[in-house]
Amino acid sequence: MKFTAFERALQGTGASRRLRITGRTPGIVYGGADAATMIELDHNALFHAIKKEAFHASILEMELAGNVHKVLLRNLQMHPSKQQILHIVFKRIEATTRMTVKVPLRYSGEENSPAVKTENCLVNHVVTDLTVSCFPADIPEFIAVDLSEIKKGSPLHVKDITLPKGVKFLVKGQVNPVLVSVTPAVEEAPVEEVPAADAKGGKGKPAAKPAAKK
Fold this sequence. Notes:
Layout: E1 2-7, H1 13-21, E2 24-30, E3 37-42, H2 43-49, H3 53-57, E4 60-64, E5 67-78, E6 85-92, E7 99-108, H4 114-117, E8 121-125, E9 129-134, E10 143-146, E11 156-157, E12 168-169, E13 178-184
Parallel strand pairs: 1-4, 2-6, 7-10
Antiparallel strand pairs: 1-3, 2-3, 4-5, 5-6, 7-9, 8-13, 9-12, 11-13
C-alpha cells in the first residue's frame, strides 16, 4: 500500500489540536539512518486506509518530500469516543534487518470439519494473530489456517500449522500455544411438561366437599 505524508513544522499539544481541526492527523516516522521526522497526513484518507488489514501487517510505501520510504505501522492512537485518529507512528525498515511484527491469522474450513459436521462441537478461535520474526520482504499480509480436518478432542497448536517461508514464530510465554480449541456443544436439557390444573384449581384431584352444617 502506498500513501502520502507531509513534513510537519510545528510541534506541541496546541499545534496538534489545530492540525486536527483542519482535517489532518499528526504523526512521526523514525528508524533507519535518518532522524525522526514529524509528519502530518490527510485524516479521511488515513481513516479509510486503517480499515484494510494490509495497512496493519505489511510493508507500506510512504511518499514524503519527493522520496518513498518503506515503513511499518507501529502505533495508532484513536479518540476514545469519536471516529478520529489522534496520532500515528511509523518505523522505517531496512531490507537486511529482521523485523518483529504481528500477523493476523485467517481461519477457514471449520464448517466442513468433522468436529462441526459430525461430532457436534464448537470450534473456538483462541488466538487471532501471531508475533513473528522475518525479513521485510517476507512479511505476510496474513497467515492462512485450514480447519477442515479439525476433530473433537484435537485442539490446534502453533506447531500444527505451516508458517510462510522465512517466517518464525516468536515465543512469548508458551512455547506451543493453542490457536483453536474444540469443545462439545452444550445441549439444553429437555423441558418436562407439567399437567395443567383442572378448572377447579386442583391437579387431577376432586374438589373438597363443604363441611355439613350442625
